[in-house]
Structures are given as structure tokens and as C-alpha cells.
Specification:
alpha+beta; two-stranded antiparallel sheet; 2 helices; 2 strands
Length: about 80
């Protein structure tokens, strides 16, 4: 299974687009001003799809974890995209 996708590598073409379509419909119905999506930097397949709908904001996501609740990786400071 591809760690960057909940659908693995066998996801049917178009499944991601259908999910985005549903999310955008929900955004309009709920009158949200925006939706954020995070993905791994090397998940090029997903990024190509997201690039069709939005521009990359240029921000990186950094997570500072509580050292008393240390993650399985042992890291308390991680940089993610």
C-alpha cells in the first residue's frame, strides 16, 4: 500500500477526483471559505491532482509533539509538507 494514499496503488483512476468533487460540494453547501489538504511531498500523483484545483500555498507544516506523548518514531519535532 502506498503510504501517501489511503487507497493504495490500486485506486481506480478518478477516485481522487470524485472525492475532491464531493468535498467541494460540501464546502459550498456548508459555506466554508476554504479547505486545506495535506499530502506528502513525494506523493506526486496526488499533488498533480491537487494542482488542478489549487496552487500550493508555499507553506510547510511543522509538528511539535509533546515529549511526554512521544510518537512511535521517537521524534518530537518533524517537518512535513
Amino acid at each position: 500500500m502506498d503510504a501517501g494514499s489511503p487507497f493504495g496503488t490500486s485506486a481506480s483512476p478518478g477516485v481522487g477526483q470524485l472525492l475532491i468533487d464531493e468535498l467541494m460540494a460540501e464546502m459550498r453547501a456548508q459555506r466554508w471559505s476554504r479547505v486545506y489538504r495535506a499530502t506528502r511531498e513525494n506523493n506526486y500523483r496526488a499533488r498533480r491532482l491537487y494542482d488542478k484545483h489549487a496552487q500550493h500555498s508555499g507553506f510547510l507544516r511543522y509538528v511539535i509533539e509533546n515529549p511526554e506523548k512521544r510518537s512511535a518514531s521517537g521524534s518530537t519535532f518533524r517537518g512535513l509538507t
